[in-house]
Write a structure and sequence with these properties.
Layout: H1 8-27, E1 30-37, E2 40-46, E3 53-62, E4 70-73, H2 75-88, E5 91-100, E6 107-114, H3 115-122, E7 130-133, E8 136-140, E9 143-144, E10 147-148, H4 149-155, E11 160-165
């Protein structure tokens, strides 16, 4: 096992925030800004309707192949995001940025949704990829009980899904010594 740089967690968090800003700014035609506030990391507004503004909490996770492809958005995180959004008159939203090798190649997956929609879907027994947990909401996207949750998420109109795949990293020798 390779040693990780001690700053990896911070670097990955910064990457997840910047990726969220890029996707929303360039692909969803929004104005975005990185903020340093309790509960929210990015603010965004639609360029054509600036009265709709979002406070976005970005959560990133680099998921090893041996671990479940899930994430718990804690009640503490929900409370902090909700309060920050309330103070600034914004709509609370979340961006989950996960890196995994679930389909045989390393992929970066991003799920963006309004917090209200996530909380509502987590209470719906028909929706299996979001569940109320003892401490917040759990989102998962691996196959479970014959259902591939990623397919369900991609079809969900309340969640914006983006992915990037690295195809040939193992054959690149640019930094080989």
């Amino acid at each position: 096992m390779r040693d990780k740089d001690q700053r990896w967690s911070k670097q990955f968090g910064d990457f997840a925030e910047c990726l969220t800003m890029y996707v929303l700014g360039q692909l969803k035609d929004m104005s975005v800004a990185l903020i340093d506030h309790v509960g929210a990391d990015v603010i965004a507004t639609k360029r054509k309707n600036t009265s709709v503004r979002y406070a976005i909490s970005v959560k990133g996770r680099n998921i090893p192949p041996s671990e479940s492809k899930s994430f718990n958005f804690s009640q503490n995180n929900i409370n902090k995001l909700t309060e920050t959004a309330r103070i600034f008159g914004m709509i609370p939203a979340v961006s989950f940025v996960f890196v995994d090798e679930m389909e045989g190649r390393k992929k970066i997956r991003m799920f963006v949704a309004k917090l209200e929609d996530i909380l509502q879907m987590s209470k719906d027994s028909e929706i299996g990829f979001l569940n109320e947990a003892n401490d917040g909401v759990t989102m998962r996207y691996t196959e479970s009980k014959g259902i591939h949750w990623l397919s369900e998420i991609k079809a969900c109109r309340e969640i914006a899904y983006f992915e990037m795949q690295f195809n040939w990293l193992e054959n690149v020798s640019v930094f080989a010594s």
